[in-house]
């Protein structure tokens, strides 16, 4: 059974000549330009009845265009039934409160048991083709051991619109992302900005390091100290972080660069392990129970890709971070 859809248009006679992919992007509206380019190269677009394979081909006024959109093919990752904390869902997007320990996307060493596997099973036929594949559209990620809010696109329209908002990082648009972190020590400035380029380490490919501007990707993190822990003689602090860029491990690396790595971070906070000796036994026990970096994506706001409505979600600290915060508030 062929569930392909065919759309056709006749351009106005006085329309200015323009590239085929640009013309289709204006006419079609739902598919991303990269998806349209792929369909053109695949022979799914005709001009005046003749297939055209070049997205750069100029088309003039009066041309008859036809676009065939094949049915989505099954996703490569298999669906796996897993419990998900769904905060919001409609035909276009799904917002998940991700627990720590869950990998977002299949990769080397994690070809199953990921959020994508769970979403394929959860969403089923409500997923439409993103890039021609029936899969959830991942527009941003959280590290495996970072908990919190994540929005995923369910179709091309949503994927295109959300990707544009995340690329802007809220500089001019409605995107809002805020994280809560527990860090060692108290930054000297209660509010500040870390602006430092990041790149993958040449010695350890699993690690991100701060480098010169000409050697890495531009990265900016804004932070605010919310609370010293414990209040009288703080050894740690609760910090709110907002991203102006979205690089791998950005908050973890930037706070370590500032001299205040995240509690429990085995990659960027290993040099602060002796700090734990200054904690009380209940505090040390709570830190051991955390067994991950103390980072939580607490706030997520964005413009709905179809309705334009502003959506905003908040997630409370998960039990492990909440228990550590409560223990740190108590005097040793």
TrEMBL record:
What Pfam families has UniProt attached to this entry? PseudoU_synth_2, S4
- Supply the InterPro entries for this chain: PsdUridine_synth_cat_dom_sf, PsdUridine_synth_RluA-like_CS, PsdUridine_synth_RluC/D, PsdUridine_synth_RsuA/RluA, RluA_PseudoU_synthase, S4_RNA-bd, S4_RNA-bd_sf
E.C. code: 5.4.99.-
Highest taxon in the source lineage: Bacteria
Question: Which reaction does this enzyme catalyse, per its entry?
Answer: a uridine in RNA = a pseudouridine in RNA; uridine(1911/1915/1917) in 23S rRNA = pseudouridine(1911/1915/1917) in 23S rRNA
Q: Where is the active site?
A: 143
Q: Which family does it belong to?
A: Belongs to the pseudouridine synthase RluA family.
Record's function text: Responsible for synthesis of pseudouridine from uracil at positions 1911, 1915 and 1917 in 23S ribosomal RNA.
Record-linked PANTHER family: MITOCHONDRIAL RNA PSEUDOURIDINE SYNTHASE, RIBOSOMAL LARGE SUBUNIT PSEUDOURIDINE SYNTHASE D
What name appears for this protein in its UniProt entry?
Pseudouridine synthase
